[in-house]
Amino acid sequence: MKRICVTGAAGFIGSNYVRYKLAQDPGVHCIVFDKLTYAGNLDNLKDLPKDRYTFIKGDIADKAAIRAAMEGCDAVVNFAADTHVDRSIMGATDFISTNVTGVYNILESARELKTARVLLVSTDEVYGSIREGSFKETSPPGPRNPYSASKAGGDLMGLAHFETFRTPVMITRGSNTYGPYQYPEKVMPLFITNLIDGQQVPLYKGGENNVRDWLYAEDHASGVDTALMKGEPGNIYNVAGGNERENIVLTRRLLSLLGRGEEFIKLVPDRPGHDFRYSIDASKLRALGWRPKMDWDTGVAKTVEWYKANEWWWRKIKSGEFLAYYKRQYEDRK
Ligand code: NAD
Ligand code: DAU
Predict the structure, then answer these.
(1) pLDDT tens sequence across 104-122
(2) How far apart are CA 160 and CA 148, in angstroms?
(3) Distance between CA 75 and CA 119 in Å, rounded?
């Protein structure tokens, strides 16, 4: 593959994917197409060679813009999304525009341009919560919050496009991802950066024992790439970290790594409809040769070190828009 359009690549996982892909394939050029929402940040790509990618600012909900960016590309990999569950509870209009209409525009553009491969990056959240066992790709969607409902909408449109038009669509459903360049609204970078600053961490009360399966960003990137290169059109591939942890266990690990005591935990009102546990079975992707490389203890320690060493990256973000969001999310909640 010579030219890949990577949408949402100024965000967390998308930028990690471009870094991974450029290192893997010296002959590839990436078109980075991104709207630069509050979560998009060109600093995420700052270390990458400028001649290996072209940045285009645009919105996937704008059909003409995304079609033009995809022209001449062998593949499109879509990371562009509104991604934070708590923000989707405050209002989901943008989530529907990007995660459903935007995905539809990518599919339609791919059909018109005869793009050879279309990879839609999705999430384990579309299956919903599971008390025991793990969801397989054949499990029906059961999204339980506005974010995951919008992602399920995009997935269903992708599968329908494959059935109707044979658009060569693959879908990946990844588990909770962590690592460098994650916007500090998500639990791991939020808690790490608060603790560096000597601030308490807002742990959702009642959700302390809720479980997430942690996947290192580079492993998520390699999972997406495996599905892109080796997956069968019309198929879904789960990308699981294999590191299920209760939120309280994650929190205590971060406290210990940052030398803070239990008094740094502040229990705050729970997320409405807080999904108890996500768990997916990735044996289908493993059968294509994919394996996550990072073990949890090392990954969390490396992540803490990265945020400690890269204050230049997150201090800029934890101002302005972020502070207004933080107040609304944590201080103004009844
Ligand atoms: P992110 O919020 O860090 O980045 C999203 C990026 O998309 C940003 O750069 C933003 O500017 C861009 N974007 C948003 N709307 C756009 C639009 N309309 N047009 C063009 N660009 C737009 O997200 P992330 O955590 O990197 O997630 C990337 C993908 O992976 C998403 O599809 C998400 O659903 C999925 N995913 C995330 C996780 C996770 O734990 N973070 C886990 C599984 C799946
Ligand atoms: O599972 C994949 C999903 O993981 C992705 O599709 C989403 O884009 C991504 O945001 C993530 O969703 P979660 O809701 O699981 O992630 P978040 O970091 O928001 O929360 C993780 C857990 O931590 C969850 O149980 C809620 C809890 N939490 C979160 C925040 C932000 C807290 O206790 N306090 C907090 O302040």
Answers:
(1) 999 999 999 999 999 999 9
(2) 18
(3) 8
**Between 3.10.20.600, 3.40.50.720, 3.40.50.1820, 3.40.630.30, what CATH number should domain 3-177+215-239 receive?**
3.40.50.720
Where on the phi/psi map is residue 238: left (φ > 0), alpha (ψ -120 to 50), or beta?
A: beta
- Give the integer Cα–Cα distance in Å for 247 and 229: 34
Q: Ligand 1 pocket test: which of 18, 37, 62, 182 has the largest number of ligand atoms within 8 Å of its C-beta?
A: 37
Per-residue pLDDT of 251-301, as tens digits, reads 999 999 999 999 999 999 999 999 999 999 999 999 999 999 999 999 999
E-assigned strand segments in the chain:
3-7, 29-34, 53-57, 75-78, 117-123, 169-174, 177-178, 201-204, 211-213, 215-216, 235-239, 244-246, 265-268
Q: Considering the chain, what percentage of its residues have pLDDT values greater than 90? A: 98
Cα(187) to centroid of ligand 2, in Å?
6
Give the pLDDT confidence of 212-238 residue by residue, as tens digits.
Answer: 999 999 999 999 999 999 999 999 999
pLDDT tens readout for residues 187-221: 999 999 999 999 999 999 999 999 999 999 999 99
Classify domain 184-212+245-275+296-331 by CATH number.
Answer: 3.90.25.10
Q: Is 39 in the pocket of ligand 1 (CB under 6 A)?
A: yes
Cβ atoms 166, 110 nearer than 8 A:
no
Say if CB 162 and CB 234 are below 8 A apart.
yes
Residue whose CB lies within 8 A of the most ligand 1 atoms, among 16, 62, 79, for a mutation test: 79
Say which DSSP state 328 is in: I
The reported pTM is 0.98
For the beta carbon of residue 188, count every other beta carbon within 10 angstroms: 22
Q: Which two tokens stand for residue 281?
A: 């079975």
Structural domain boundaries in the chain: 3-177+215-239, 184-212+245-275+296-331
